[in-house]
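Supplementary notes for students who missed Thursday's class. We covered one full example, reproduced here. Read the sequence, then the structure, then the short commentary at the end.
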Amino acid sequence: MVIEDMDIWEASCRGYYLEVLSGSISGDGAPDGRMCGYLIGSVTYYSFHERLTVLFVSDGHYIRRGFKATYTQFNFSALSGKKCNICS
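Structure (token representation):
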């Protein structure tokens, strides 16, 4: 999952935050744990256990853009435990 944009009120990440659970961060500096405030650039998360949990918390007092994320699902189960010379 790539978080492309984020504008979440940043009062110490208490009432407003985005948290990605069950994922592995990429080498681009994706933070582990709660995120709030503004995002400059993008961050990428990977999941190797067929799930990625995204938690967005807002207490509703402030209105901001929120966040924009995209994800791509890959299915590698067809190759697990098998060897092949040409695989598609």
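Commentary. Strands lie at 2-8, 16-21, 24-25, 34-35, 37-38, 43-46, 53-58, 66-70. The chain has one domain: 2-77. If anything here is unclear, bring it to office hours.
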